[in-house]
């Protein structure tokens, strides 16, 4: 089965980007879909959310400089069918160093090409920093699909146009002509407020084919889980957050054809 690369990006922080990357990856793995999560954020929140210790020299910093391969950085997790390439603080330096090299937007794509060619993973999910810097732009250049997490508040709408413009620029420049917006995940939905419902309807009006039916609720349990180094499924499997991410995974499996092949008769 071919490998599909998703990047989860948004220049705004605090919109549920890492929460979605971690729990979506875990939900896909729970469906026996071989998944690799790449933590490209120097803050390493996705790494710690999976209970993996940060280790010097275990991120993509070395591979981005041609000093090692992405295969060497793959780290097992506590979850079957889910592997991780962790992050570390050195990745912050890569923002500057990559910009000074040739083909600077294609660095990550080159690093991930052997992983894609090996077809060892059905899905690769990249968690980006909360900024459209060099690492995030590299992830867009390497991905098949962009998944945008959008908080259910009006201020969050302002940044949506900016990231869509960057997608168009990369396509127009031929950096990644096949990149598509795979979908918009509405996060931090508060059922008690009209505002959340109004924002979802507004985004659906402008992007009717892109917004996922599943909305991710604002819950304390989703916020707590990373501090225990656990996904929401390990921390509180019966919570509304766990139910929502299972539903989102089902939508993504269906939308992008990630189903495992049927066994031969």
Verbal overview:
With 265 residues, the protein is an alpha/beta fold. Helices cover 43% and strands 17% of the residues. It has twelve helices and eight strands. It has an eight-stranded mixed β-sheet, with helices on both faces. Helix 1 (17-30) crosses helix 12 and helix 6 runs parallel beside helix 7 (134-142).
Write the layout of secondary structure elements.
Layout: E1 4-8, H1 17-30, E2 35-39, H2 45-49, H3 61-64, H4 70-73, E3 75-76, E4 82-85, H5 91-99, H6 107-118, E5 123-127, H7 134-142, E6 145-151, H8 154-172, E7 180-189, H9 194-206, E8 211-217, H10 220-224, H11 232-235, H12 240-255
Parallel strand pairs: 1-5, 1-6, 2-4, 2-5, 6-7, 7-8
Antiparallel strand pairs: 3-4
Helix percent reads: 40-55%
Number of DSSP E strands: 8
- Describe the largest sheet: 8 strands, mixed
Globally, the shape reads: globular
Strand line-up of the largest beta sheet: 3-4-2-5-1-6-7-8
Q: Oligomeric status of the shown chains?
A: single chain
- How large is the count of helical segments? 12
Q: Whole-number average pLDDT? A: 91
Rg over CA atoms, rounded to whole Å, is 17 Å
Query: Class by helix and strand content?
Result: alpha/beta
The first-to-last residue Cα distance is 18 Å
Give the topology string: H per helix, E per strand: EHEHHHEEHHEHEHEHEHHH
Q: Note poorly predicted spans.
A: none
How much of the sequence lies in strands comes to 15-25%
